[in-house]
Structure formats: structure tokens, C-alpha cells
Amino acid sequence: MPTRRIVAASQMAPRTIASYCTTFLKPEMLHIYRQVTGLRRSKTFIMTKALENTERFPFPDIEIIPQPRMNLFRHGWLKLVKREPPIVYRGEYEALATLLERRGADLMHIYFGHTGVHLLPFILEWDRPCVVSFHGADVASKEEMPEYAEKMRRMFQAVPLVLARSQSLANRLVQLGCPTEKLRINRTGVPLAAFPYQRREVPRNGKWRILQACRLIPKKGVATSIRTFAILHKQFPNAELIIAGKGPLQPQLEALARQLHVRDKIHFCGFLSQPELAELYASAHLFLHPSEIGSDHNQEGVPNSVLEAMSTGLTVVATRHGGIPEAVEHGRTGLLVDEGDFVSMADAVASILGSTTALHEMGKLASESVAANFEQTEQIHQLESHYEEAIRLTRREEVAEAAAAPLPAHLPERVPVK
After folding, report:
1. pLDDT for 187-241, tens place per residue?
2. Number of other CB atoms surrounding residue 180 within 10 Å
3. CA 20 to 30 Å from 270, out of 166, 248, 250, 405?
4. How far apart are CA 231 and CA 348, in angstroms?
5. CA distances from 390 to 11, 17, 227 (A)
6. Number of neighbours of residue 340 by Cβ within 10 angstroms
């Protein structure tokens, strides 16, 4: 592996941020798109290996990390003899160095912790700061990779700041070895104008519309939503459950709905655009999100859909999971139950549907809470403040290293002042 320090181009104003995301962007990465398009005091370009959903996520300045020409002898030597990490023997190391120098980046924001671990050899050598942000799945254990935990700890030491989407994720990162003084909360921002408040009224025909919007994967707890609805259906026979999203669990979830005799009352809408989803929020009466933590500690930060639903005035019934309690205040802006407890969840939903006051007041307070704590412009402002702090911390460290360096054995003679 190269041992020289990689020299970046000189500082530019405004700050130039390299936003590194291995794939730009998967459908569930809307929060990243909102961040990179929302920067105001700095400018950014995207570094990625693969483009997806370009119509949904257009961006004017994207750098595709070039695939280096394969030299089989060099590849084999670095991998098998020198035992270098993949980023070196695959040639990505030098490609990154060249790209960042050409663009004059002041800082690299690496999205997702596992990507930071992959880039660790580069982080250790680049002469500019990197920050790594964690979003949920990237705090999961990787027992199949024995060295992963140690590399994660080395990465924490190598970067000036680590960003977490919620306090619960920050707590998990401390358990994984991140120094608390390096952690900063970087919450998801919601564009409030796209999700305006709307007062919900009790449907005269009893046709309650209950909504969950998410990927159909285990940690979203959609099976719990279906079991909850099966109980509610007995008390509210005209109610409907709308599930917006795609994922590998859909066949199993549809089978569960048939097994519980509620398939005809559950609508799987698939993946929706943001305007379509906003319309669905507006037409719904209540929002479910019963997330569950996996055995590998895979967890949610603060789910985007929960914040968007709350912004529109939807009362949320969810679980005490991850960062959800940081957004949903039990008894005030929604109700929370234990993970997997669909009986308690059904009771919680029924208590709201049976109370016009709860439906109105909780929805209004939920919208106000999102405006106060998750407004996008303010969250972007904080993110850019974290960038500036990381740059200051790196400069301070460099000055301290220079001051501590030993003086040369033979000092040059002083030039007399004329």
C-alpha cells in the first residue's frame, strides 16, 4: 500500500465537499438526496461507483469513480504477497487520490459506516478530513468478518467527526468503540412545504384508512401491522390498511393477510413517487410503523416516512425502537408500544380512532414537533456546521503535530536583516 501522504489541491471558498455514496441512489436513500441538494454554504459533487434512479434523483455534478485497468501480476502481488486491502489491489486508492486532487475537495463525507471501513486505508493517508455518517443498517454486527469490528474502531480514530441520524444510533456507536467526543447528531430533514398539515376528520362511513409506508423488509415490522389490522378489523369492519412500498417480503406478507382473512382489506401500493406519497398521507387517518431490531442490531435511525406523516398531521402509532421515540412523544404526538406487540398496538390504534380529540390534538402536535425539530433547512445548516468543525479539528491536529515534531539536528544559519 502506498505510504506517502496524498496531497489535495489548495483550499477553495466556498468549501468543496466530496459526497461519497457507493450507489447513487437507491430508492430508500431519499434523505441523502435531500442533504446533497440542500447544501447552501458549501458546494458538493457526488463520488459513486454506480448510478441508479437518475430520473428520480437528478444531480448536476457526479463523478463516476473510474475502474482502473487490471494488471493481473500487480493485482496478484498486492493481494496475495503484500496482503493489501481491496481498495489498494483493485486500484481504487489511486483513482480516489487523483479525483479528489483534481476537484480540490476540502472534505469527504462518506455515507454509511461499512463504506467508511472499506475506505479506511485511504482515510488514513489523505491529508484532508473525512466524516462518516451512520444511518441504521450500518451499525449491524458482521460476525462473518472477524476483522470488521477492529477496522471500525480504527476508522473512528482516523476521522475527526462521526455523524449519526439519531441518539439511539449514537449510543450504539459508542458500544462499537466510537469516542463520545467525536459523535454529532445529524438528523433527517423534512421539506415541510411538501408535506403540509391537514386536519383529519372521522369518516362518516367508518372507512378508516390506516397507512404504513416503507420497504418490505424485516426491520420495518410490516407483519406486525397486518396482525394489528386483523384485530382492528373486527371492531372497525370498514377500515382499510394501505401498505406503500416494495421489498422481498411482499409474497409472505400477502400470504399472512390471506391467512388472517383480511387480504381484501389490505392494499399493497408498491413504490410511490413523493407527490403520490404526499397524496396518500393526506387521504389517510393514522400511520403505523412497528419497527423491530434484528439479532444483528440492524435498526432504524428516525424513519423518513414517520416524519413526513407527522408533518401532514397524521397521528403515529409505532414501537419503542431505534430513534422513533426521539420523534414520537408517547401520549402527546403519538403512541408507542413494545416491539412485536400487535395486541397492544391494536389497542393503541383503537383508542385513537375512538377519540376525536386524540385524533385532532395528537396530529396537530405531531406536525408542530416536526417543524420545530426536523425542518430541513435547519438540519442542513447543522450539517454544514459539522463540516466546518471537522476541518477546524483537522487543522488543529496538524498544527499540534508540527509543534511536537523534533527540530532538525543542524539548523540553517539565520539570514541577517539588512
Report:
1. 989 999 999 999 999 998 999 999 999 999 999 999 999 999 999 999 999 999 9
2. 10
3. 166
4. 12
5. 14, 12, 46
6. 16
Cell of 215: 420497504
**Nearest 5°: CA angle at 253, between 267 and 273?**
45
Q: How far apart are CA 35 and CA 21, in angstroms?
A: 12
Residue 181 · residue 161 · CB < 8 Å: no
Distance between CA atoms of residues 113 and 127, nearest Å = 20
Cβ atoms within 10 Å of 325's Cβ, excluding its own:
18
Residue 347 CB burial class (10 angstroms; 0-12, 13-18, ≥19): middle
Mode of pairing for the β-strands spanning 107-111 and 334-337: unpaired
Q: Which residue has the cell 434523483?
A: 57
313: left (phi over 0), alpha (psi -120 to 50) or beta: left
Set of cell numbers at residue 52? 441508479
d(Cα 401, Cα 396) in Å, to the nearest integer? 9
Q: Where are the alpha helices (DSSP H) in 104-205?
A: 113-118, 120-125, 148-158, 167-175
Q: Which residue has the cell 393503541?
A: 348
Q: Give the model's confidence band at 4: pLDDT under 50 very low, under 70 low, under 90 confident, else very high.
A: very low
- 95-145 pLDDT, tens per residue? 888 999 999 999 999 999 999 999 998 999 899 999 999 999 999 888 777
Q: Distance between CA atoms of 376 and 362, rounded to whole angstroms?
A: 22
| Interacting residues of 288 by C-beta distance below 8 A, sequence separation 6+ | 210, 211, 212, 225, 228, 241, 316, 317, 318, 345, 349
Cell of 100: 479528489
Q: DSSP code of 204?
A: T
- Residue 161 β-bridge partners: 131
Grid cell listed for 351: 383508542
